[in-house]
């Protein structure tokens, strides 16, 4: 659900996301994006909102809002959460109106209803995880906070407020510097050699951002992401980065006469 809001932020249509865990176990995710479309979709003959919430691989693109960059889960996020929730309610503010639809274990309980007027836009999804599946589910505040922190580093200019009313804890993340701020955060307790180096480029429709900062230590800390998903096992993007930085450092060292042409590489 949060990834849907992140997609809106990556598209420049949202700058605030709020996640709240209530005492009864309900979770609400709210954003100030454009709001999920509610018009009848010609393929399903149902509301685009209902299609997003009940059909696998529908996602926001199903509503005609394809994203150039997506941090989502390939259209299975919202529909799976809905199917695994004993109760779920979606409220959409869009085109000056407020709309609502409720579900039980993924089954719509009513058609999308217009319930009032709205002066702003956005989507709020409130769900209760099915206890018959998950038992008494306790959300890990620290683990979720870490993930939300990463999301905000990867989505420059996004503010995310997270509150757990059960544990009486809350935190707000906002990083104007994006992943350059992430590099500073990782080095906050280490002597650094320079300010973060930040590189951003788009090649053949693929957007790449890199931030790096050397410190005085010998241990390496590397994080890599693809579409805002933490790729803990690396991948071709990380392999390519390592190869590129190795080549650049060795070539620069030779150009600056720090090593001779016939000497071994620095790294």
From TrEMBL:
Record SMART domains: HATPase_c, TOP2c
Domain Histidine kinase/HSP90-like ATPase as annotated: residue spans: 1-133
InterPro entries according to UniProt: HATPase_C_sf, HATPase_dom, Ribosomal_Su5_D2-typ_SF, Ribsml_uS5_D2-typ_fold_subgr, Topo_IIA, Topo_IIA_B, Topo_IIA_bsu_dom2
EC number: 5.6.2.2
Keywords annotated in UniProt: ATP-binding, DNA-binding, Isomerase, Nucleotide-binding, Topoisomerase
Family annotation (Gene3D superfamilies): 3.30.230.10, Histidine kinase-like ATPase, C-terminal domain
Molecular functions (GO terms): ATP binding; DNA binding; DNA topoisomerase type II (double strand cut, ATP-hydrolyzing) activity
CDD domains: HATPase_GyrB-like
Obligatory cofactor(s): Mg(2+)
Catalytic activity: ATP-dependent breakage, passage and rejoining of double-stranded DNA
GO terms of biological process kind: DNA topological change
Similarity-based family: Belongs to the type II topoisomerase GyrB family.
The name this protein goes by in its record: DNA topoisomerase (ATP-hydrolyzing)
Record organism: marine sediment metagenome
